[in-house]
Design a protein that fits this description.
The protein has helices spanning 11-22, 42-47, 66-77, 87-117, 125-145, 159-173, 182-192, and strands spanning 2-5, 27-30, 55-58, 61-64, 79-80, 83-84. By secondary structure, the chain is an alpha/beta fold. The two termini are 28 Å apart. Bound molecules: glutathione.
Length: 206
Amino acid sequence: MLKIWGRISSINVQKVVWAAQELRVPFERQDAGGKFGGLDTPEYVRMNPNKLVPVIDDDGFILWESNAIVRYLASRHGAGELWPGDLRTRADADRWMDWQATEFAPGMRDAFMQLIRTPQDQRDDDLIAASVARSNRHALLLEDWLYNRDYLTGKAFTVADIAVGAQAHRWLGLPIERPETPRLQAWYQRISQRESAQGVLTLPLA
Ligand SMILES: N[C@@H](CCC(=O)N[C@@H](CS)C(=O)NCC(=O)O)C(=O)O
Protein backbone atom coordinates (compact mmCIF):
# COMPACT_ATOMS: atom_id res chain seq x y z
CA MET A 1 0.00 0.00 0.00
CA LEU A 2 1.12 3.56 -0.67
CA LYS A 3 2.75 5.03 2.42
CA ILE A 4 2.90 8.78 3.05
CA TRP A 5 5.13 10.30 5.73
CA GLY A 6 4.20 13.70 7.11
CA ARG A 7 2.03 15.63 9.53
CA ILE A 8 -1.28 16.74 8.02
CA SER A 9 -0.74 20.37 9.15
CA SER A 10 1.94 20.62 6.41
CA ILE A 11 0.58 22.10 3.18
CA ASN A 12 2.91 19.85 1.22
CA VAL A 13 1.54 16.74 2.93
CA GLN A 14 -1.99 18.06 2.39
CA LYS A 15 -1.43 18.17 -1.38
CA VAL A 16 -0.28 14.56 -1.47
CA VAL A 17 -3.14 13.31 0.73
CA TRP A 18 -5.68 15.24 -1.36
CA ALA A 19 -4.27 13.76 -4.59
CA ALA A 20 -4.36 10.20 -3.20
CA GLN A 21 -7.95 10.73 -2.01
CA GLU A 22 -8.97 12.21 -5.37
CA LEU A 23 -7.45 9.21 -7.15
CA ARG A 24 -8.99 6.80 -4.62
CA VAL A 25 -5.60 5.25 -4.00
CA PRO A 26 -5.57 3.53 -0.59
CA PHE A 27 -2.77 4.86 1.58
CA GLU A 28 -1.40 4.82 5.06
CA ARG A 29 -0.11 8.11 6.49
CA GLN A 30 2.53 8.20 9.19
CA ASP A 31 2.81 11.43 11.19
CA ALA A 32 6.32 12.92 10.92
CA GLY A 33 7.84 16.38 11.19
CA GLY A 34 6.79 19.27 13.40
CA LYS A 35 5.88 18.14 16.91
CA PHE A 36 6.11 14.50 15.75
CA GLY A 37 9.80 14.80 14.80
CA GLY A 38 11.45 11.75 13.27
CA LEU A 39 13.08 13.55 10.32
CA ASP A 40 16.62 13.15 11.67
CA THR A 41 16.70 9.38 11.97
CA PRO A 42 19.07 7.57 9.59
CA GLU A 43 16.11 5.66 8.11
CA TYR A 44 14.26 8.89 7.32
CA VAL A 45 17.33 10.70 6.00
CA ARG A 46 17.95 7.77 3.66
CA MET A 47 14.47 8.38 2.21
CA ASN A 48 14.70 12.18 2.18
CA PRO A 49 18.12 13.75 2.75
CA ASN A 50 16.38 17.16 2.98
CA LYS A 51 14.86 16.03 6.31
CA LEU A 52 11.47 17.38 5.23
CA VAL A 53 7.96 16.01 4.71
CA PRO A 54 6.34 14.60 2.66
CA VAL A 55 7.92 11.42 1.39
CA ILE A 56 6.11 8.50 -0.20
CA ASP A 57 6.97 4.83 -0.54
CA ASP A 58 5.00 3.32 -3.40
CA ASP A 59 5.88 -0.37 -3.51
CA GLY A 60 9.52 0.44 -2.81
CA PHE A 61 9.66 3.57 -4.96
CA ILE A 62 10.68 6.43 -2.68
CA LEU A 63 9.84 9.98 -3.76
CA TRP A 64 10.05 13.41 -2.09
CA GLU A 65 8.96 16.91 -3.28
CA SER A 66 5.21 17.29 -2.90
CA ASN A 67 4.39 18.54 -6.39
CA ALA A 68 6.50 15.80 -7.98
CA ILE A 69 4.63 13.26 -5.83
CA VAL A 70 1.25 14.68 -6.88
CA ARG A 71 2.31 14.52 -10.56
CA TYR A 72 3.60 10.96 -10.12
CA LEU A 73 0.41 9.72 -8.45
CA ALA A 74 -1.79 11.51 -10.98
CA SER A 75 0.10 10.19 -13.99
CA ARG A 76 0.10 6.69 -12.52
CA HIS A 77 -3.56 6.59 -11.51
CA GLY A 78 -5.29 9.52 -13.20
CA ALA A 79 -3.58 9.98 -16.55
CA GLY A 80 -5.73 11.91 -18.96
CA GLU A 81 -7.85 13.45 -16.21
CA LEU A 82 -6.16 14.69 -13.08
CA TRP A 83 -2.92 14.68 -15.12
CA PRO A 84 -4.22 16.05 -18.44
CA GLY A 85 -3.60 14.03 -21.59
CA ASP A 86 -3.45 17.07 -23.84
CA LEU A 87 0.11 18.39 -23.94
CA ARG A 88 -0.75 22.08 -23.63
CA THR A 89 -3.33 21.56 -20.89
CA ARG A 90 -0.74 19.51 -19.05
CA ALA A 91 1.88 22.24 -19.48
CA ASP A 92 -0.65 24.73 -18.17
CA ALA A 93 -1.31 22.57 -15.08
CA ASP A 94 2.41 22.05 -14.60
CA ARG A 95 3.01 25.80 -14.84
CA TRP A 96 0.50 26.52 -12.07
CA MET A 97 2.11 23.90 -9.85
CA ASP A 98 5.50 25.54 -10.33
CA TRP A 99 3.95 28.93 -9.68
CA GLN A 100 2.48 27.67 -6.42
CA ALA A 101 5.85 26.32 -5.28
CA THR A 102 8.06 29.19 -6.45
CA GLU A 103 5.84 32.28 -6.14
CA PHE A 104 2.57 31.87 -4.21
CA ALA A 105 4.02 29.75 -1.35
CA PRO A 106 7.25 31.70 -0.73
CA GLY A 107 5.34 34.98 -0.91
CA MET A 108 2.92 33.84 1.80
CA ARG A 109 5.43 32.06 4.01
CA ASP A 110 6.25 34.94 6.38
CA ALA A 111 2.60 35.88 6.87
CA PHE A 112 1.71 32.28 7.64
CA MET A 113 4.64 31.60 9.96
CA GLN A 114 4.19 34.88 11.80
CA LEU A 115 0.41 34.96 12.12
CA ILE A 116 -0.22 31.25 12.69
CA ARG A 117 2.93 29.87 14.25
CA THR A 118 4.52 32.80 16.14
CA PRO A 119 3.26 34.12 19.50
CA GLN A 120 1.71 37.58 19.07
CA ASP A 121 4.35 39.39 21.18
CA GLN A 122 7.16 38.02 19.00
CA ARG A 123 5.72 38.94 15.61
CA ASP A 124 7.45 41.21 13.09
CA ASP A 125 4.81 43.55 11.66
CA ASP A 126 6.94 44.68 8.70
CA LEU A 127 7.58 41.09 7.66
CA ILE A 128 3.87 40.36 7.90
CA ALA A 129 2.86 43.46 5.91
CA ALA A 130 5.28 42.68 3.06
CA SER A 131 4.17 39.06 2.89
CA VAL A 132 0.46 39.95 3.01
CA ALA A 133 0.98 42.44 0.17
CA ARG A 134 2.71 39.77 -1.95
CA SER A 135 0.03 37.17 -1.17
CA ASN A 136 -2.79 39.55 -2.02
CA ARG A 137 -1.09 40.42 -5.32
CA HIS A 138 -0.82 36.72 -6.14
CA ALA A 139 -4.46 36.14 -5.20
CA LEU A 140 -5.53 38.98 -7.51
CA LEU A 141 -3.53 37.41 -10.33
CA LEU A 142 -5.52 34.20 -9.75
CA GLU A 143 -8.74 36.19 -9.61
CA ASP A 144 -8.02 37.56 -13.11
CA TRP A 145 -7.01 34.15 -14.43
CA LEU A 146 -10.24 32.51 -13.23
CA TYR A 147 -12.38 34.72 -15.48
CA ASN A 148 -14.42 32.29 -17.61
CA ARG A 149 -12.63 29.27 -16.10
CA ASP A 150 -14.19 26.78 -13.68
CA TYR A 151 -10.79 25.37 -12.80
CA LEU A 152 -7.24 26.57 -13.37
CA THR A 153 -6.82 24.85 -16.71
CA GLY A 154 -10.41 25.41 -17.85
CA LYS A 155 -13.29 22.99 -17.52
CA ALA A 156 -11.70 20.14 -15.56
CA PHE A 157 -10.19 19.68 -12.11
CA THR A 158 -6.46 18.86 -12.38
CA VAL A 159 -3.30 18.60 -10.28
CA ALA A 160 -2.98 22.38 -10.60
CA ASP A 161 -6.15 22.89 -8.55
CA ILE A 162 -4.71 20.69 -5.81
CA ALA A 163 -1.41 22.56 -5.46
CA VAL A 164 -2.83 26.07 -5.86
CA GLY A 165 -6.02 25.16 -3.96
CA ALA A 166 -4.06 24.08 -0.89
CA GLN A 167 -2.22 27.41 -0.99
CA ALA A 168 -5.47 29.35 -1.47
CA HIS A 169 -6.83 27.55 1.60
CA ARG A 170 -3.99 29.15 3.56
CA TRP A 171 -4.56 32.59 2.09
CA LEU A 172 -8.28 32.46 2.88
CA GLY A 173 -7.57 31.22 6.42
CA LEU A 174 -5.10 33.96 7.37
CA PRO A 175 -6.42 36.68 9.69
CA ILE A 176 -5.62 39.47 7.20
CA GLU A 177 -7.39 42.06 5.08
CA ARG A 178 -8.04 40.58 1.67
CA PRO A 179 -9.11 42.25 -1.56
CA GLU A 180 -12.44 41.19 -3.11
CA THR A 181 -11.91 37.98 -5.08
CA PRO A 182 -15.35 36.59 -6.04
CA ARG A 183 -14.03 34.28 -8.79
CA LEU A 184 -11.31 32.89 -6.55
CA GLN A 185 -13.90 32.33 -3.80
CA ALA A 186 -16.27 30.54 -6.20
CA TRP A 187 -13.44 28.33 -7.48
CA TYR A 188 -12.37 27.58 -3.90
CA GLN A 189 -15.95 26.61 -2.98
CA ARG A 190 -16.05 24.31 -6.01
CA ILE A 191 -12.84 22.50 -5.17
CA SER A 192 -13.36 22.38 -1.41
CA GLN A 193 -16.71 20.65 -1.86
CA ARG A 194 -15.06 17.66 -3.52
CA GLU A 195 -15.15 14.53 -1.41
CA SER A 196 -11.38 14.22 -1.83
CA ALA A 197 -10.82 17.61 -0.20
CA GLN A 198 -12.41 16.51 3.08
CA GLY A 199 -9.83 16.20 5.84
CA VAL A 200 -7.57 18.57 3.89
CA LEU A 201 -9.34 21.85 3.06
CA THR A 202 -11.57 21.33 6.11
CA LEU A 203 -8.57 21.69 8.43
CA PRO A 204 -8.05 24.94 10.33
CA LEU A 205 -4.62 26.51 9.79
CA ALA A 206 -2.11 25.23 12.34
N1 LIG B 1 9.64 21.62 -1.55
C1 LIG B 1 9.28 20.68 -0.54
C2 LIG B 1 9.12 21.43 0.79
C3 LIG B 1 8.90 20.48 1.94
C4 LIG B 1 8.78 21.24 3.25
O1 LIG B 1 9.20 22.41 3.37
N2 LIG B 1 8.21 20.59 4.25
C5 LIG B 1 8.07 21.21 5.56
C6 LIG B 1 6.59 21.16 5.99
S1 LIG B 1 5.54 22.07 4.87
C7 LIG B 1 8.85 20.41 6.58
O2 LIG B 1 9.12 19.24 6.40
N3 LIG B 1 9.20 21.08 7.68
C8 LIG B 1 9.88 20.43 8.78
C9 LIG B 1 8.94 19.77 9.72
O3 LIG B 1 7.75 19.62 9.44
O4 LIG B 1 9.44 19.35 10.79
C10 LIG B 1 7.98 19.96 -0.94
O5 LIG B 1 7.17 20.58 -1.64
O6 LIG B 1 7.80 18.79 -0.57
